[in-house]
Amino acid sequence: MALAGTGVFAEILDGEVYRYYSDGEWRSSASGKSVAIVNPTTRKTQYRVQACTQEEVNKVMDEAKVAQKAWARTPLWKRAELLHKAAAILKEHKAPIAECLVKEIAKPAKDAVSEVVRSGDLVSYTAEEGVRILGEGKLLVSDSFPGNERNKYCLSSKIPLGVVLAIPPFNYPVNLAVSKIGPALIAGNALVLKPPTQGAVAALHMVHCFHLAGFPKGLISCVTGKGSEIGDFLTMHPGVNCISFTGGDTGISISKKAGMVPLQMELGGKDACIVLDDADLDLVAGNIVKGGFSYSGQRCTAVKVVLIMESIADAVVQKVNAKLAKLKVGPPEDDSDITPVVTESSANFIEGLVMDAKEKGATFCQEYRREGNLIWPLLLDHVRPDMRIAWEEPFGPVLPVIRINSVEEGIHHCNASNFGLQGCIFTRDINKAILISDAMETGTVQINSAPARGPDHFPFQGLKDSGIGSQGITNSINMMTKVKSTVINLPSPSYTMG
Ligand code: G3H
Fold this sequence. Notes:
Elements: E1 13-14, E2 17-18, E3 20-22, E4 25-27, E5 34-38, E6 45-50, H1 54-72, H2 76-92, H3 94-105, H4 109-134, E7 138-141, E8 152-160, E9 163-167, H5 175-186, E10 190-193, H6 200-213, E11 220-222, H7 227-235, E12 242-246, H8 250-257, E13 263-266, E14 271-275, H9 281-293, E15 303-309, H10 310-325, H11 344-359, E16 363-364, E17 370-371, E18 374-375, E19 378-381, E20 398-404, H12 407-416, E21 419-420, E22 422-426, H13 430-439, E23 444-447, E24 460-461, E25 463-464, E26 467-468, E27 470-471, H14 473-479, E28 481-489
Parallel strand pairs: 2-6, 9-10, 9-12, 10-11, 12-13, 14-15, 14-22, 15-20, 19-20, 22-23
Antiparallel strand pairs: 1-2, 3-4, 5-6, 7-8, 8-28, 13-26, 16-19, 17-18, 21-25, 24-27
Helix pairs in contact: 2-4, 2-6, 3-4, 3-6, 4-5, 5-14, 9-10
């Protein structure tokens, strides 16, 4: 039974096209055009969204600027109250939003529901954290710096940046949207959301939950459309005071084009899993399968290369293969483990990496199989550094294994990557794990578990081409503020009385 676009969500739909959200209302674009969203499983148009114009973007930016001024003066506890309300509404409507995730991005049904619930929890936590950290400031006295008496008192607190532009990726169109929306709003900013094309309808439903919570009009907007028409126009818009982006290489070009605004960028990863010979092999195999193949490998934090000591490689490969054989491959509606990848071009790219590895002599642990966008899980053993898959990010259910003869070899491969998101180490020797962690040039190193962003309040950051800045609830709130100081200058040092 279709739930999307019905009930409380009926007003976000205009005939067959989902509306965009501007000035507190759901609207149809003056362009009269729409963008098709193709279901990765059926490869047919599932939904349509408005193709917004640059004039509509200008309007949204003007409204955001006005709404932000009033919002910044709204008491912090009231901002938090509204966020809690939005979080509850979001969770209450998890079914229709999850349905969109299943249809638009082929997210397995159970994972789709988890994404919405996780998002509600993230928004609530953000409200609580915001009240704590934004309710605090600093008092500095001048006589700690040489040459000064105690005649200056500096009061510093955090103020909002203005208008935050949020651009989440297709793989978490709800969760990675609210991870930007929540911090922006609690900190007193206005928010303009440009959802990914695939995932846009789930994001529009999520935005409606914020609408139902009663946020002031113009404070939150959501524009949809073609990147070629409004992509650069948005990221280079003079009304934008901060950009928070999650996605691929586009982030690098946005960083080059953006003006003097703070950037939060989470881009790709080639997360290495280094396995030492003293590791718990069952734990390793379980984490390789979960880390490498959940949501068909379409996570920036997926395990993307296994670097394993030769002495245990055969045993681990065997255990991983046994687990892969049990994965359910099929449509997301059936709650399959492996579902179709997001687009045909993505499937073609993955296939290109697989074929390159085949030509260069990698061992295929399973037969390579593809039907449409659905690619069966594949472990590629004996991968060598001259194969593209050793370095490139497939974003699909195919995982290379490189056999190593020393830990140094593993660290070297990990650090030679242009990415530096996360990495993981499996060993029972915690002292060695700490040494390896320090040597790995990645934003996070997981010891004895696969890479992951969550829990959502943990700091999350990438080095090199993997990103700029740090996310996680606290870091995102801080990033979306700046420090404002007021200095009280006394006519004489304050300790001269008495
Ligand atoms: O795809 C990028 C996400 O930030 C990964 O999040 O580790 O929760 O799957 P996750």
